[in-house]
Amino acid sequence: MKRILVVMMCMVMAMTNAFAQDSKKKNEKETVTFVVEAMHCNNCIKKIEKNIAFEKGVTDLKCDLDTKTAEVTYRKDKTTTDKLASAFKKIGMEAVPVDSGDK
Q1: How far apart (Å, rounded) are the C-alpha atoms in residues 20 and 53?
Q2: Contact, 87 vs 26, CB < 8 A?
Q3: Closest to 32 in 3D by CA, of 64, 61, 67, 3
Q4: Side-by-side strand order, sheet with 95-97
């Protein structure tokens, strides 16, 4: 009886560990920088922060008025760069992602 319990507990622990690793892969984050030419003032930044920051999957958002860029960190399993760009269009701003290969 003890052997059965020990084997069952080992199986449960092994399965828990396997599922935990899968969930870590799903929570991978990516950061993309968008050039937003229509960003002219602090009100534009507030508009972006109030809307884009609450898009599905967005975990962090930083806007820079001097360079007219918005750096968005998001969960890859929840959204994509294209969906984020269309979210900018919804608020009346054209956002073009900067090629990450240049870094």
Answers
A1: 27
A2: no
A3: 61
A4: 58-64, 69-75, 29-36, 95-97
Domain residue spans of the chain: 28-102
Can you say whether the dihedral through the CA atoms of 69, 94, 74, 102 is positive or negative? negative
| pTM, 2 dp | 0.69
Q: What is the residue-level pLDDT of the chain in tens, covering all 103 positions?
A: 888 878 787 778 877 776 665 555 567 999 999 999 999 999 999 999 999 989 999 999 999 999 999 999 999 999 999 999 999 999 999 999 997 544 4
CATH top class, domain 28-102: alpha beta
What is d(CA 35, CA 100) in angstroms, rounded to the nearest whole number? 12
Residues 6 or more apart in contact with residue 37 via CB below 8 angstroms: 68, 94
Strands (E), the chain: 29-36, 58-64, 69-75, 95-97
